[in-house]
Amino acid sequence: MMGNAGAVDQDSLIKKFGQLLIEGEEIEIGFKLIRDTIIFTSKRLILVDIQGITGGKVEYKSIVYKTISRFSIETAGTFDLDAELKIWISSESAPSVKKQFNKSVNVYEVQKVLASHVL
Question: From the CA atom positions of the chain, what is the Rg in Å?
Fold first, then answer.
């Protein structure tokens, strides 16, 4: 996976992905990773995976917060320019989701949003 994620404003996310939301669901925060997008809503985590060379095929993966068994954040170091989020689903031994964030993203805020839904 190349690149790392940066924050996306909420209005852009609603305009582009609002059709994915159910009644009463709200987008809390989102991040862009080259072509893919990570969206934290009030009810679930949505991973938008743009596939293929032309990007014509899109997978929308929903992860209900209650299925997340654990998660971790790794902050950016002096020589490592990005932070990383790992999420484990149910009893899997390896993380199901791994996403990298650039230094402009406060990974503690990402962790706080996730923790508020999972814990």
Answer: 14
